[in-house]
Predict the structure.
Amino acid sequence: MTGKTGKVVSVNGNMVSVEFDGNVSMNEICYVKVDDIALKSEVIRIRGNVAQIQVYEMTGGIKCGDEVEFTGDMLSAELGPGLLGQVYDGLQNPLPVLAKQAGWFLERGNYADGLDPVKTWDFTPTARPGDKLRAGMAIGTVPEGPFTHKIFVPFYLLGTYTLKSIVNKGYYTVKSTVAVITDSRGKDIPITLSFKWPVKRAVKCYSERLAPVETMETKVRLIDSFFPVAKGGTYCIPGPFGAGKTVLQHTTSKYADVDIVIIAACGERAGEVVETITEFPELVDPKTGRSLMERTIIICNTSSMPVASREASVYTSVTLAEYYRQMGLNVLLLADSTSRWAQALREMSGRLEEIPGEEAFPAYLESYIAAFYERAGYVRLPDGSKGSVTIGGTVSPAGGNFEEPVTQATLKVVGAFHGLSRERSDARKYPAIDPLISWSKYRSVIDPKKSDFCKNILHHGDEIGSMMKVVGEEGTSLSDYMVYLKAEMLDAVYLQQNSFDPIDANCDTARQRYVVDKLVTVLGSEYNLNDKDEARGYFNRLRQKFIDWNYTEFESDAFKAAEAEIDSLYQEGKGTISPEADLLLKDGE
Amino acid sequence: MNKVYNRIESIVGNVITVKANGVRYNELAQIFTRFGKSLAQVNKIDGEIVSLQVFAGGQGVSTGDEVRFLGREMQVPFGEELLGRIFNGSGAPIDNGPVLRDNMKPIGRPSVNPTKRILANRMMRTNIPMIDMFNTLVISQKLPIFSISGEPYNQLLARIAMQAEADVIVLGGMGLKYDDFLYFKDELSKGGALSKTVMFIHTASDPTVECMMIPDMALAVAEQFALEDKDVLVLLTDMTNFADAMKEIAITQEQVPSNRGYPGDLYSQLASRYEKAVDFANSGSVTVLAVTTMPGDDVTHPVPDNTGYITEGQYYLKGGRIEPFGSLSRLKQNVNGKTRKDHRALMDAMIRLYSSYKETIEKKHMGFAMSRWDEKLLKYGELFERQLMDLSVNLSLEDALDLGWKILADCFERDETGMKSELIDEFWPVR
């Protein structure tokens, strides 16, 4: 606290104007005092001696003349051991602690420390007195769940420092000083297990930013094979409501091949967060054999929680992601939904009476979205290790129409686009990612030529399908009709996945490669079938066999048996493989 | 102690301004006009200029009318004695019963801490197959009924109110036609449900500002009952009127409109109401069913569109039926895995086939020859619509599932359904 204060002069929704003396900085945190409580707020505009602040709470009861206390600090996240497994609100208040303090409801003015101030951590020093250090370099470690959590020289320290002293191995709280470093002018700076970082600034304590080349497995066939995401890459999932954005994010958070998952439930339903909180502690992370919750952080600012902290929540989330990246870990940030964040910007912009842009969104919407996604990345760290932050954001376009500002601004900056379609979700096809409009700039887990081969069949099948709507089945040649059936089958047995089935929902790379080869054979073959009815019957049977195959455990006896059935059915159809498909399969060997 | 002012500076629509000091944001005031007294609520403070929205509307308000600040925010009475009572949007009784002044509770309380919620996992049976079997309603779910004007949405709401198992029913009517209000009253008393019902009614002829208060009052009462261990079902009709009331106020206050004149915070406003749906750990629950009429059957209209993003699915009422496409209960998977093991698979397969039927019907209307497969689909679609979709069908979930298998077997061969063979072996009806 700086002891600097001001007085409220106007109240309009969650925007309050404050008259102050002296200096106030932009984005500074301040507290509005109403009766006995202080409401956290952020300065968002300064004009003369009046600061406009957005209050992170409901503003009922505020009156002119109420005192406002400025802190001098920007909105910051507390970084240190103990973040994993937490459920935070958008301002990094741990919700379970708030519940202990206030009961059922999120009473306003009730805050708590982001990190448990009492808990002790087993600190092992790794730096020695005399070592030259810079921001983002480790001085020691503590074990946190399955990870070795590095303790850093705070990211905000500029220049080079010398380690003066460091404590011995032992148990310390996040607030206790474990080392002292000296700057070039001989000033001592104590280092604790935790420090604060302003959430709206990107952490840049890495040596080099690398191109995202390694594919991040999501175990969703449609994504990994056709529209992959890279570690350190960005992707977006726009879709109308009910198309399965959240279900897709939820499955990804369970099965994605990363070290840490941060779920930012931004302006969405509380029930979905409850689902994650209830389910994750019970699930086992196959990589570590420990509870899935130990690799997860949930930042939840649900739709009924105050709008201003919704805006902050995405920044809090990405800051935590960058922090763990600094330890050489692969972090996946799932933001659901970035449209709600954009709407929060719009609400504030409206209250500030800024000149509105398209659909009343502020003119700076695009640059804000771009800046957010740019915080993803695959980097080389000062110690030579590599880490990544991958960002996957859902977009909830008004009316399901992708030609709206948030979707368009997002598409410009992401590396993969998974467009969900109402048509597919209405037909109960999961995932409802539309293969005809989606794209990705990253590397597929399967041979890209095979991926293109399959996509071609889908496109071709779709063309024939729409033609058939005009000329009818009888006006379509048998060979075209076969392509249509093949596309339908590919969709049913490979693109679609049963997210409720533990085996089908979790389809790894080896299996995808294996199944795709089988599919290339089946789809790349010509069959000796007499008419359309016979063709439909044949492909229905094939489809059935493939679906049953999908539910068997990879390389198990059941798997082999189901495969044998497909093979014998293939023989029965007297399939002859086309030279193109044959070449593809030989290529891979 | 109450501050009294006798000079109104401006009157624009339903919003008046007075010069006053020490007034709090959201505080209530009483205004005494030639038509009697009305409540008003502070919705903006700029220096000493205080804007208030007048519940009874701006009509007939004089610049010399008296404004008395009450020093408190909006409240509703609470208690067992509320059951069977009917109130208007100012919280005043409109059933000739006594005014309740005890145990007043504030409305528009903060959100429930997500960690204090529990996973919705109890099915609410309605014996309507399109709900129970295809889009199961779950206790603590929030679901809108998307509908165009003229559809029997209030009838559907009343039927659900009567058949669903709830301890308390809170009905919030916004812009309700007077005959619809009478209809609800009659139906609920005929069904014997009136004694467990509280009604907050704003009819189409009542002032706009009162319309905006209805959901908050209804939900505040529901929340209190839920904290007393009751399972509460809140029925709201019609949320589009609520949104339109907000639009009206926002425009009079010169807010920048975002989409078709609606204020930029439409989503947050709707969400803070719908999110009152909750299942409290170790206590009761609030389930919300809200009618949202779609102007021109346009689901992309801002109100249904924003609603769809907030709620846990939607029932889409069209042509007197709950449409299987467009309708969705997002929480159904929390319960339909525990009902009967064929429930999910059968539901998916039937919808998939119905979707193919819709394509076939389109082809047929364009005059194309029907293949053997098309004929099967046509038969299937007809049976499905008549035996399961019709709103008058009253079947328990188990009977509906059996009927579903029977319809499939009547129309298709086993391998045409695209289901796991294991289930087909067990449930395919033997003839």
Notes: Chain A has four domains: 5-74, 120-193, 206-440, 448-588. The mean pLDDT of chain A is 93.
